[in-house]
Amino acid sequence: MVGYCPICGKPVYFGEKKRSLGRDYHPLCLKCQQCQRQLTPGQHAEGW
After folding, report:
1. Which of 33, 38, 36, 37 minimizes the C-alpha distance to 48?
2. 1-42 in CATH: which number?
């Protein structure tokens, strides 16, 4: 089953996905919303 990236909305295939907070992301889409720095899975903070 192919998931969809919550940032760009495009399909995320097994070989490229980064999983964080129970969602699949493209490596380039998984980044800080404030500073745009790329993150690794699990390197996040929620809420403000």
Report:
1. 33
2. 2.10.110.10
